[in-house]
Model the fold of this input.
Amino acid sequence: MRQSKLFYKALKKTSKDAEAISHVLLTRASFVDQAAAGIFTFLPLGFKVLKKIEDIIREEMIAIEGQEVLMPALIPKENWEKTGRWNSFDVLFKLKSKKEYGLGPTHEEIIVPLAKKIVLSYKDLPFYLFQIQTKFRDELRVKSGLLRTREFLMKDLYSFHIDEKDLGKYYEKVSKAYLNIFKRCEVKAYKTLASGGSFSQFSHEYQMPTNAGEDVIHICSKCNTAINNEIKSKVKKCPDCNGSKFEQKKAVEIGNIFNLSDKYSLPFNLKFKDKDGKEKPVIMGCYGIGLGRLMAAVVEANNDKNGIVWPKEIAPFDIHLIEINAKKQADKLYNELQKQGKEVLYDDRADKAPGEKFAEADLIGIPIRMVVSEKTLKNNSVELKNRNKKKVCLIKFSHISQII
Ligand SMILES: [Zn+2]
Done:
């Protein structure tokens, strides 16, 4: 992509209400634009990152036998009335047109009646359905940019089982998949005990420590198990190692797992015929990750005073190629790198000074910066720098393909 054609503008400042560093940097570097409070547009750079996060999550969900579906955002009022959530769900966006609908913040009200059409016997279980879809929450208060929004892209996975034991086994698989996702995005997530599940041993949040977070967690200094602030008063010792020393940190939730048990199966009468001929309720689990929030968490964890430092796997481009009075040679290199399958952002802008180009490259945060200038051409070389390192080195044109 030629930067001269990119829909992009680096901003010197952001609005005063931008407190979280991820909000400041993602706005300044033109990854997102705030259309209204808690409502964002993903610009070309941001959309590329979002799609890469989506690819990682999809891969990891398919690896644990998740099957992808796409459910509607419009969920009829009568479905919400069945579970009692039309009145009790305080963040539900209610829509009144010719009929009444809730805009889905979660999808039990669609997926349970759907499962009922397929599940008859124990032979139909287990199965695992997920979607990556836009969700809505009518939050009273939105702040911290992408960390808390009213409309957001989310991966939600639902699992259906014959009993708690089978759910427990699958829970462990999801837990590993989640850790893979966070590792590939280069964020450190703590598996955190939380309330909210029907069976406490299966209710977990994945929390990333950051000062921009709204939650507080207590990390066991012996085994790294974390406990959510809400349940800390009930837990004196670490449930995993009996340790009693904890470190308190502010954190943001980047994933969660709920054991739903039969909470939603019962109102929709989702049952199966077991081996013994008896009808039993289907046991369910649900597992969420917000993509935009994860993207913001990545930026909270990977930045310096000059800008974002994207992890390799989700960076918008592999290489940021900068041209300084060496258009012909830089054009040639741009074409060659693309032929090698590299994703390149090429700063070919003629009206920008070198200093401006370097500052904006640091702000955008692509992992590798390459500079072709009159100076490097004297050595028949390009200048190479990793975004997360200080060292700059010259590489001969003929050696580039061996280095990157
Ligand atoms: Zn412990």
Summary: The chain has a mean pLDDT of 95. The chain has twelve helices and 23 strands.
